[in-house]
Automatic annotation (TrEMBL):
Keywords of the record: DNA-binding, Transcription, Transcription regulation
Protein name: Glycine cleavage system transcriptional activator
Organism: Pelagimonas varians
Gene3D superfamilies: Periplasmic binding protein-like II, Winged helix-like DNA-binding domain superfamily/Winged helix DNA-binding domain
Coiled-coil residue windows: none
A GO molecular-function descriptor: DNA-binding transcription factor activity
Amino acid sequence: MRSTLPPLRALQAFESFGRLGSVSAAAQELGVTSGAISQQIKLLEDHLQIPLIMKDGRRAALSPTAKSYHALVSSGFVKLHQAQTLLAKQASELDVNVSGLPTLLLKWLQPKLKSFEARYGETSIRLEATHGEPDPEFLNHMFRLTYGSVSKSFPHARPLFHDICFPVCSPEFLKRYPEALDPAALPNLPWVEIDWGPEYASVPKLNTWLAAQGLENLHRKPTSMHSLSSSALEAVASGQGIALAQLSFASVDLELGRLIRISQESVRMPEPYYICWGARMLKREKSRDFLNWIIAETTR
């Protein structure tokens, strides 16, 4: 096997084929013919001197050796796409770039931004809502708003706030189920689940709150289950059921009357939310202004 890198076009064809599972799909994605994809994969096989493709009848698939190679090649292309995105951000005329958990940006940060502009003047801010944590190197060009211990992977991190959770419902739901004001009745009422996934197993759920009050677990399946807290809160506001809401995410809807807090008892989130940044991020005045402002917002 040669130690020199294969041609980029061949790697691109191989990565696309392995990810999409067919020559025709890879050809469509890359805007070339199926024959061109097959030719590039053959060039890569010749370069590596190992077979990459197995034939199973009329179907082509990656060989066992090729699968591990493909995983590494794919991660490399992910890095290339991230680098391109980073350059695009640097080339833009926006003053501040912020990456963050979707509901944290939508329900907590977005309503506050008008106070930042009122204090520091008109500012162009890019908000990138994603659950994917960026490469720490990217934080020289953007802030990251995230939750919990993942903040330790970034060069600098500052806790913003430690949230609390409590049950909420819509006014319309409370009219239909006035017994929702009695905590003991909640296990039998329609409810909406928020599930962030196995990495966040310690995040409180409605059963966590019920247990803290010495009450039984929920007796029925959820009306709906959501990976995004904002999506779940919209389902609750539409009258689908009760959910355990975080104060930071529900505060605006509570003020607007779209949601009603049905108990003053709460449970605490296990970890704080953080703002993270890189070593060179604070060289720009607007970035320093943003960091000072967001910290001040959480200490009021």
